Amino acid sequence: MLELIELYKSFGDKRVLNGASLTINKGETLTIIGRSGVGKSVMLKHIIRLMEPDSGKILIEGKNIFEFNRKELTAYRQRFGMLFQGAALFDSMTVDENVGLALREHTNIPEPQIQKIATEKLRLVGLVNVEHLKPEELSGGMRKRVGLARAISMDPEFILYDEPTTGLDPIMADAINDLIIRMRKELNITSICVTHDMVSAYKISDRIAMLYEGRIIFVGTPEEVKATDNPVVQQFIQGKAEGPIKVL
Ligand SMILES: Nc1ncnc2c1ncn2[C@@H]1O[C@H](COP(=O)(O)OP(=O)(O)O)[C@@H](O)[C@H]1O
Ligand SMILES: [Mg+2]
Question: Candidates 9, 13, 16, 52: which one to mutate for ligand 1, based on the most atoms within 8 Å of Cβ?
Fold first, then answer.
């Protein structure tokens, strides 16, 4: 459904993606794991073409997104919702303004209808009566929920989650995991998640892919990941300082 083929990307003389390939199937939740700084966010940014690779392709329905013209790119991006690391809400806007942002910018839906959609999306992520609050009045978990409500405002086919549980306490993290599972079940959304939280990865994922030294070195179900004898994967999932992955 979505095919990342041999992506290469360097910043200066630092190569971040070094032939990364990965296929994402319709309807699945696929989680990309890997250490901080390995290039997980960079990979997500390529998927919605916020970044261009030095070489490589991303195919959707057989078409390379890096060859899309402006109009095709806009249509492509509208198929995605993105929950950014730290939620990335606009502090000067109220919660409902944040959630309705894309609808206001990209559709002709009248304002009262946008308000209704915002309230409905907020309800879907478990928030009621928060429309008129400012992001600064919300807890970290609530901000993530608002970010998720905004990500689904345009009824996307795909959601990209960048570290959805990072920085949350374990209970709040689990509530966010449950929401990610719910998005898949109730909205039939294809999800691509990036995390280094293995508790979350095991719980939400149909498949887990590990990014290491610029490539996807392993893809499998949570059971397959746990059972693999790949020493790099084992070191990461067990969180050990000792092993083939250098600590520094
Ligand atoms: N816009 C950029 N300009 C220069 N370097 C970048 C840029 N974006 C990311 N990088 C570098 O790419 C590497 C991977 O970053 P990132 O994808 O954010 O890692 P993570 O796996 O933690 O999400 C890091 O070394 C980072 O400094
Ligand atoms: Mg990141």
Answer: 16
Closest CA to 165 of 42, 33, 47, 39: 33
Sheet of 14-24, strands arranged across: 14-24, 2-11, 55-60, 63-64
Question: Ligand 1 atom 27: the closest Cα is on which residue?
Answer: 37
Residue closest by Cα to atom 2 of ligand 1: 11
**According to the per-residue pLDDT averaged within each range, which of 20-24, 120-124, 138-142, 161-165 is highest?**
20-24
The rounded distance, in Å, linking the Cα atoms of 236 and 232 is 6
Band the pLDDT of 88: cuts 50, 70, 90.
confident
Q: Which CATH superfamily is domain 27-56+70-238 in?
A: P-loop containing nucleotide triphosphate hydrolases (3.40.50.300)
